[in-house]
């Protein structure tokens, strides 16, 4: 017996086979190459069919899918803002058509990340923990008393929209204040803004065309002591610290796990982020929480998806 | 059959008798007059004994108590920062000593406010709703899927500590950023700061000694078109709007109820607060929430306490 965990991201699909004991047996990825709408659905079902074929012996008994957006549980459709045409995509139906009687469970990436870390990663043993995912965008998977916070309409955890900056600016309209300043996209954007405002700069970031600068470039320049990069990352540390402080004051969690593509390189900033959070947060709560780096890294999604699958067929001992 | 709801505040104790159907039958209050420690405990038990005596006929079958701080459920002790000597006060034991076999349930004011509004007030029928209490301090009672959010150590909902202002200031240390700017105490404090900074002011607030200015004075001056008062309240509206936006983006609730002593006079600002929240919050979530004024007003605490009591003895149809 085995289960399949699928992690559909904005640029690739990863699929991993897990044993009944929860060990990852094999994994593979397929790039989206800018595909849209039903082409992406087709890639997912192809990958699932391939695993069903090649794993006929071990017998896949359930499938979990992690999607980059909202899983509408009642309708089985998915809203994924970064996949064109996925406003209300009938993913569950398409998968059920190829999976027959094998149960399929779909959930948001936020939910899968914290479920994965809670099952096999940094949040093991916690009942109240939060995964702060900082990648292209920002989201939070929030576990309260062993249950995912979903909200009245399945869109809780949209922490990228957190108001942190005192006065509203129009540039926050498309993505929210926190995401504007401290996501992967945000790091690149804020850096470009600073470079445009700075006339006397001739540091390493000036070697690149402004539009080509990425968050990775900013971290690389930061490591080399670049002043602009330092300013950008210091600002991020401030916003990450404030956001974490707000999670601590509101949720009084046991752990906050920092993950996503930016953590990654930003993992080195966790001590400074903690120091910033210390200043703002409820002073008792802040002593009761541990702020840690994701242990599953880029695999948090497939682990969470596999957990959904396993849980759909049997009770799981965490 | 009846139940007793007790609301222990920072300045008075209110007690109300409720019928089994949940109707308030009678109510009375006792001022604390600056009493401390076990004197306050004595006032609570005296009031309970009096109700037990005078209601012998109707038969009080359970007692609920709303406390201004943290109810440590496992130990039955209470931390109430505004009652000197109540760091770990054994309220449950003291009450059990006078109540005998009658069950006693203690919970925080935040929890009681949202439970009361959910039972008989503005949040009736909701499974996911938040009570934002703005009085001397600020707190939030958060109902998720019909269950109070407690956190890992019973101190969730400490929204007064919410970081909203971009850069930390030392003045936030004792109470938190949001509470500093937008609580009842905060309104008075910010107004005093502005008056001290403004040399040319001779408006109505200059009739009062600086230290005597209260939030009520600021609202009264605001109603009379005073410029400083307008500035203070406008700043509060901005912070209230940001905080509500953050609750919307994180919790995706059905309703947010504005209550506490400041709402009261600030109820008139709710349309402006909504407009501010609209700018910051997750754009889908913000269309799914209703922001409303408390319907129970100063009685939210006794209603919530009575609900705790009733629920301890029978299932309640909400």
Explained architecture:
The structure is a homodimer of 318-residue chains. With 318 residues, chain A is of the alpha/beta class. Chain A folds into two domains: 2-116 and 298-313, Nucleotidyltransferase, domain 5; 126-294, 2-Layer Sandwich (Nucleotidyltransferase, domain 5), CATH 3.30.420. The first copy, chain A, has helices at residues 37-54, 91-99, 109-120, 177-182, 184-197, 215-223, 227-251, 270-280, 300-313; strands at 2-8, 12-19, 24-31, 60-67, 70-72, 77-79, 104-108, 129-134, 138-144, 147-148, 255-259, 290-293. In chain A, a hairpin with a 2-residue loop joins strand 9 (138-144) and strand 10. In chain A, helix 3 (109-120) crosses helix 9. The longest helix of chain A has 25 residues, at 227-251. The two termini of chain A are 19 Å apart. The interface between A and B is large, with 50 and 50 residues.
């Amino acid at each position: 017996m085995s289960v399949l965990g699928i992690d559909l991201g904005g640029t690739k699909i990863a699929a991993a086979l897990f044993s009944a004991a929860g060990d990852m047996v094999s994994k593979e990825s397929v790039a989206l190459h800018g595909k849209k709408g039903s082409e992406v659905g087709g890639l997912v079902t192809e990958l699932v069919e391939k695993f069903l074929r090649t794993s006929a012996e071990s017998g896949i008994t359930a499938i979990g899918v992690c999607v980059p957006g909202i899983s509408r549980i009642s309708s089985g459709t998915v809203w994924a803002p970064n996949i064109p045409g996925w406003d209300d995509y009938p993913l569950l139906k398409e998968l059920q058509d190829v999976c027959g009687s094998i149960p399929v469970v779909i959930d948001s990436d936020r939910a899968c990340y914290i479920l994965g870390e809670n099952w096999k990663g940094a949040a093991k043993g916690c009942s109240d923990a939060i995964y702060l995912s900082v990648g292209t965008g920002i989201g939070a998977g929030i576990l309260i008393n062993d249950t995912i916070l979903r909200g009245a309409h399945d869109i809780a955890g949209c922490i990228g929209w957190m108001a942190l900056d005192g006065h509203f600016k129009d540039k926050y309209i498309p993505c929210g204040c926190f995401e504007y300043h401290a996501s992967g996209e945000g790091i690149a954007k804020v850096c470009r803004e600073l470079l445009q405002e700075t006339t006397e700069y001739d540091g390493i970031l000036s070697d690149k065309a402004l539009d080509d600068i990425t968050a990775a470039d900013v971290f690389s320049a930061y490591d080399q002591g670049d002043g602009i990069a330092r300013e950008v990352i210091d600002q991020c540390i401030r916003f990450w610290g404030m956001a974490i402080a707000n999670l601590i004051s509101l949720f009084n969690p046991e752990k906050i796990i920092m993950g996503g593509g930016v953590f990654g390189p930003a993992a080195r900033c966790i001590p400074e982020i903690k120091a910033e959070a210390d200043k703002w947060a409820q002073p008792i709560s802040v002593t009761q929480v541990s702020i840690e780096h994701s242990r599953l890294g880029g695999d948090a999604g497939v682990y969470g998806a596999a957990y959904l699958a396993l849980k759909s067929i049997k009770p799981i001992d965490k």
